[in-house]
User: Fold this.
Amino acid sequence: MKKIHYELLMLLVVALWGSSFALTKPLLDKMGVFNFLAYRFIIGGLVLLLFLLATKKFIVNKEVLKSGITTGVLIFITFYFHNIGLKYTSVANNAFIVGSSVIFIPIIQYLIFKKKTSSTIILQTITAIIGLALITLLNTKNQMNFGDIITLAGTVVYSFYTIIVQDHVRKFSVNVFVTIQLLTVGILSLISTFIFEKPTMDLAANEWINIIFLAVVITSIAYYLLSVVQKHLEATNVGLIFTLEPFFAVLFSWVFYHEIISLNMLIGGTLIFISMIMPYMPKKPYANNDHP
Assistant:
């Protein structure tokens, strides 16, 4: 597959994650965050585990177990910080800071891993962050608060995850790695549920259907595709495409809840899309300096 094919797969993952906001919103009115995450990640992890056991492909060694647990802990911390942050700040601020991993990924790569960023990536990043700001921040007047700081901490953790997982998925079976990762998040969420919340199973049939869809499609399949993509794309490319998540969240909110899509949201989404396709735009040929 060509690079653009993996970018389209990543775009599919981001679209799935964007749809999760509209599906998750009513569920969180009935249960705590940890309770919801426990259902989502345990069911999602068990689906992959049962598939691997049935096909006799669940082959685990110490290295893949350690990597899966380590990255699973990072996902759990990210979800925790982002959800706690959302309690104390606006949805717009939260969405902007969550999407701003596109800024932190090249910074972390340079400061810690001594990896320089190309001028094209820098231009893509600036364009994407302007588009993200148009989608999330244009109509808000909120100043930096406690919720923003907590959300920012989660985004930095997720940036580390995006960089680290890139190397891990290239060493192991993606199926096994993702299964361990998801079950780690699920088990940590289940433990946190019993410590901080009251577990509930009192849900309607359509709510269980939503949970199963979120667990199987938006967790199992989406994280599997993400790991496949990260075998072939750089972390900076993944971060750029990730900035489209708030746009998809707004789009699905319009579909499910008839929320208004403003002009600045459309312009912002267009700018992010342009940032993604910049490397594929035809380049202006150098002028011929030979005079007749």
About this structure: DSSP finds twelve helices and no strands in the chain. Residues 96 and 133 are 6 Å apart (CA to CA).
